[in-house]
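Task: complex structure prediction.
Instruction: return structure tokens for all chains below.
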Amino acid sequence: MALIVQKYGGTSVGSIERIMHVARKVKSFRDQGHDLVVVLSAMSGETNRLIDLAKQVQSSPDARELDVLLSTGEQQTIALLVMALKQIGVDARSYTGPQVRILTDSSFNKARILSIEESRMRKDLDEGRVVVAAGFQGVDENGNTTTLGRGGSDTTAVALAATLKADECQIYTDVDGVYTTDPRVVPEARRLNRITFEEMLELASLGSKVLQIRAVEFAGKYNVPLRVLSSFKDGEGTLITYEEDGMEEPLISGIAFQRDEAKLTILGVPDEPGVAYRILGPIGDANIEVDMIVQNVGADDTTDFTFTVNRNDYEKALKILQSTAEELGARDVNGDVKIVKISVVGVGMRSHAGIAATMFKALADERINIRMISTSEIKTSVVVDEKYLELAVRTLHSAFKLEQELTQA
Amino acid sequence: MALIVQKYGGTSVGSIERIMHVARKVKSFRDQGHDLVVVLSAMSGETNRLIDLAKQVQSSPDARELDVLLSTGEQQTIALLVMALKQIGVDARSYTGPQVRILTDSSFNKARILSIEESRMRKDLDEGRVVVAAGFQGVDENGNTTTLGRGGSDTTAVALAATLKADECQIYTDVDGVYTTDPRVVPEARRLNRITFEEMLELASLGSKVLQIRAVEFAGKYNVPLRVLSSFKDGEGTLITYEEDGMEEPLISGIAFQRDEAKLTILGVPDEPGVAYRILGPIGDANIEVDMIVQNVGADDTTDFTFTVNRNDYEKALKILQSTAEELGARDVNGDVKIVKISVVGVGMRSHAGIAATMFKALADERINIRMISTSEIKTSVVVDEKYLELAVRTLHSAFKLEQELTQA
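Output:
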């Protein structure tokens, strides 16, 4: 007898058959006595179709009107799901974002939720109805329709769960949970039963694209237990919660990697205050996002400074760096696009020494040269040559025994 | 420098190209200095596509949810038109029915407008924006989305025009105005420059399906000058207004006909009070709509009673009538499905005698037998055998000289 918020993505509601499948799934939870709030995305492909229509009409579609257009996608799926539920005898009612009254700021296309009105949903739940709410959309204080940006339906689900103090927020996708790493690279990759919010944030931002980062942040902030499951396959999925005291925690939860990075180095810059800003300032001004940053003191009074950017920004960043190098009187500038970043993530790192050493030894044993290292509280990342990606990930997966149920320190 | 409400139907916004065509049309009015409120339908075919989806999910789609689903159609076209307008430099803003706040009752699928909030639209107009509003939809006092039923966009346009005290409400369709009769039957049929609300109501209800009856009633009630024009062809269209004193009015405005009627007669029923109710009561109880009703006193103390129904209801009505005949001790019951109704309509009838005589003589000259006659203040209808339809309509069109610009008494 719990209150569960369930979110089904575009693939899960991508056809009439799939919508009916979701209805039966919802009914099975209802039959177990649970109260349910269901959040839906638009049918897969629909949002892209609408964006395409918009671009045919206006080269750069008006932000306010784009949200009016795009928000029709979920409005269609919520109505269809309620019909499907009623068809199998489950009482339900649909709400658009404005109807729930999910109040957002006025940043069209990427609005942020300010508050959620609870009363209408609560009344329906009390009267035994399933509430079916449109994800991704809200309304600003002037009554304009807004959308939360790509993947915003996850955020809607978590926000509704937080507002209603739901027992769990379940995100149904086309994968059956969060894995220790990409199973396409390591066939032994294992689905995690549990993972902490912080680990999930590190894994998500590093490329395991299962959940929207904002949704995970939100869930963490409001302590909403979040579960990722498959809408097509039965199973427990992966539960994302806070670390609980006394639990057996794995040392390392997963290994993430990112293929689309490039690395730039400026060599022999004077080692003096403000030099990092003088190097990265112009890069930021050009709207280029910098990921890893490493600075080494050189032999003389100079320093070498290395950072990574998205591979698409490499040429632009290199040009800027070359002109910075001239200004600073640097010795040289070089770069490499054939690199990848690999990160091991785990809250166990906080309390256990030697993780980095294990990592570096495993890579050294395979003669994989480490080009860059960066560490945070629960993550250690290395940059290696692109050609070593698969070997490195498999080596680390096995070194940390991730194919086994629990890796103890 | 007028305030004009324009409504474009589904065919007029049926593709991206057509939406851009509408945008250019709107711009040309804007360039003339007019203030504009544009009301749109969904793209042609979209509403049917959505209804079809709904029926795949629920055999008899839930009325509330169907409105949530259907209202997405216009929401898409209004956003796209605003983008198209902005693309050509015309400032505009879209409003859904709930956003305008077109308050309706809660009769989903066939809601009636209760009130319209003027302030947001007025502010946009004052600031030089074109207001683009979704037709067909509104919101009830509980915040539920409602729709006005098929063709409801015409009603929205007229209601907005009434609220804003617009100088004219222009309905753009795929015909270029109201004709004296169906040009497919009478090639000489002429577009009317003007017609009164009452004539339009009689013509519309009799089968000239240019405008929604409710919209015409609404326009008449609030005295909104209504103009029907083509969105594809330039021209003045047909202006629908009140009769103005001193104007040269045509005697007859048009000839309507209806092919899908059937006629039923009960013969030799006792001529006593309450008999009409005893005959038509059971017909109405069976949800069969009765059109013309004629009662003749017979030779003895009995009477013959004839009425017409939609041809689809003929079998059902005949069965009911047969059982009524037994109860009443009537002599016989007969019927005919091969009949048509032809009506001449004109406010001139009010003040001019002899219209009916001219009509009957013209038909007699062609040896067309009249099976039934019914008259109202501005309309005379006859029922004739189906095979005479074309001949009868052409004969009357020519008898009343409708091919000429003005028919004087």
